[in-house]
Design a protein that fits this description.
This protein is an alpha/beta fold. It folds into two domains: 189 residues, Rossmann fold (3-Layer(aba) Sandwich), CATH 3.40.50.2000; 161 residues, Rossmann fold, CATH 3.40.50.2000. The protein is built from 14 helices and 13 strands. The strands form two sheets. A seven-stranded parallel sheet has the order 3-2-1-4-5-6-7, with helices on both faces. Helix 1 crosses helix 14. The protein starts with a strand and ends with a helix. The mean pLDDT is 94.
C-alpha cells in the first residue's frame, strides 16, 4: 500500500481557509476506499488539537507552526527528512508551501499566489519576499501542483512558471454550518453578513463606505466578523459616522456563526482578489443570497446564483445592498439558484480528484 506523508506543519488552528481545506479534504478521503496509507507530519500546535478527521497516523514534529522561522525551516528541510524516515512514496503539502527538495515525488496544493499577483494588498511586506521565494522553491520541486480555481492556475503559470500540464484544478467545497435555521431570517432586521480576516485585499472598507451612501431609513446593518486585536476598520466606521449600523466582530464561535447565518439577509464579499471563495459556497448551501465582487474567481464559484458588483465602485455596492434588502422575491430566487450552485461542489469530489492526482504521479513514477 503506497504511503503518503501529509505535510501538516502549518496546521495550528489559526490559518482559516487552508486549514478548512486540509481538514475537510482528508475527512472526505477517509470516507472513500483509498488505496493509500496516510501519515500526518504535524506542527506542535496542531498536535494539541483534535485530529480525529485525519485518516491515518499522526507524527508530532515538535516544530511550531506559529513561529515563522521554525515553520519555514521545517517546510524547507524537515518534511523531506520525515518522508525518508517514514519510507513515504509520496508527499502532499496542502497549504501552498512545501519542501525545497525531496527524494520522493511531491504534490503541492497552492491556493493562490496573491504575494505575486497583488503585492499592494499584502499587509506583511517583510514577509512577502521570503514567501515568494519559498513558493518558487516548492513549486519547482513539485511533481504536480493542485490549485483551487482556473484563476489561480493561470496565475501560477504566469508568476511561478509552472507549465499548465503540471497543474490540476480541484475546486473546494462547502456546507452550511450546523444549527442554521433560515426561518429566522430578518429576525434582527435587514442584515448583511461579512466574514473574513482584515487583510487589505478583502476590501471590507467598501462595505462601510457603501452603507454610508444608503439613506438612513433604508440602511441594513453590516456585521463583519473575523477581526483580531485592534480592528483597522474601526477608524473608517468612525470617519463615516455609521457606528450604529456597522458591527465589527472578532472571531466568533460556532453557535454565533449559526445564529448569524440564520438571521442574515445576505452575505457580502467585496474582495479585490481570492483563490476561491469558501464562504460563498457555505452561504449558498445554507440558503443565503450572496453579493460578490465581480472578479473571475467569484464568477467561477458563484455562477449565475450571485449578484455581482464592481469592488471599486461604492455606489454599485450600495445599490446591490438596497436591491437585496428591498426585494423578497429576488432573495427567494437567489436562494434556489444558490442551492443548485452549491451542489456542484462537494468534498467527496475534491477528495476523489485529489486521489486521482496522487495516482497519476505514482503511476508515472
Amino acid at each position: 500500500m503506497p504511503r503518503v506523508l501529509v505535510d501538516l506543519l502549518s496546521y495550528s488552528g489559526t490559518k482559516g481557509g487552508m486549514e478548512t481545506y486540509t481538514r475537510e479534504l482528508y475527512a472526505a478521503i477517509g470516507r472513500l476506499e483509498s488505496p493509500y496509507e496516510f501519515v500526518g507530519y504535524i506542527s506542535r500546535e496542531g498536535a494539541a488539537l483534535d485530529t480525529s478527521w485525519f485518516p491515518g497516523r499522526i507524527v508530532e514534529s515538535g516544530i511550531s507552526g506559529e513561529n515563522r522561522f521554525q515553520w519555514a525551516w521545517g517546510e524547507l528541510t524537515q518534511v523531506a527528512r520525515a518522508a525518508d524516515r517514514e519510507r513515504a512514496d509520496l508527499i502532499h503539502s496542502p497549504a501552498t508551501l512545501g519542501p525545497r527538495k525531496t527524494a520522493v515525488p511531491t504534490v503541492l496544493t497552492i491556493h493562490d499566489v496573491l504575494y505575486f499577483s497583488h503585492p499592494e494588498h499584502m499587509s506583511t511586506p517583510l514577509y512577502t519576499e521570503p514567501v515568494k521565494w519559498m513558493e518558487k522553491q516548492a513549486s519547482r520541486n513539485a511533481a504536480r501542483v493542485i490549485t483551487i480555481s482556473p484563476t489561480s492556475a493561470s496565475e501560477i503559470t504566469k508568476y511561478l512558471h509552472v507549465p499548465g500540464e503540471r497543474i490540476d484544478v480541484v475546486p473546494l467545497a462547502g456546507s452550511a454550518p450546523d444549527g442554521v435555521d433560515r426561518a429566522r431570517e430578518g429576525e434582527d432586521g435587514p442584515l448583511i453578513l461579512a466574514m473574513g480576516n482584515r487583510r487589505p485585499h478583502k476590501n471590507w472598507a467598501a462595505l462601510i463606505r457603501a452603507i454610508a451612501l444608503v439613506p438612513e431609513g433604508r440602511r441594513a446593518r453590516i456585521v463583519i466578523t473575523g477581526g483580531r486585536g485592534d480592528d483597522p476598520l474601526a477608524p473608517i466606521v468612525e470617519e463615516y459616522g455609521v457606528g450604529e449600523w456597522v458591527d465589527l466582530r472578532g472571531w466568533v464561535d460556532d453557535d454565533e456563526v449559526a445564529r448569524l447565518y440564520s438571521v442574515a439577509t445576505a452575505l457580502a464579499i467585496p474582495s479585490f482578489a481570492e483563490g476561491f471563495s469558501l464562504p460563498t459556497i457555505e452561504a449558498m448551501a445554507a440558503g443565503i443570497p450572496t453579493l460578490l465582487s465581480d472578479i473571475d474567481v467569484h464568477r467561477y464559484v458563484g455562477g449565475d446564483a450571485a449578484r455581482y458588483f464592481d469592488p471599486t465602485d461604492d455606489t454599485d455596492l450600495a445599490r446591490a445592498i438596497t436591491e437585496m434588502t428591498a426585494s423578497a422575491p429576488l432573495r427567494a430566487q437567489m436562494v434556489e439558484a444558490g442551492y443548485a450552485q452549491a451542489a456542484c461542489f462537494s468534498w467527496d469530489r475534491t477528495a476523489s480528484e485529489t486521489l486521482a492526482v496522487f495516482d497519476r504521479v505514482l503511476a508515472r513514477g
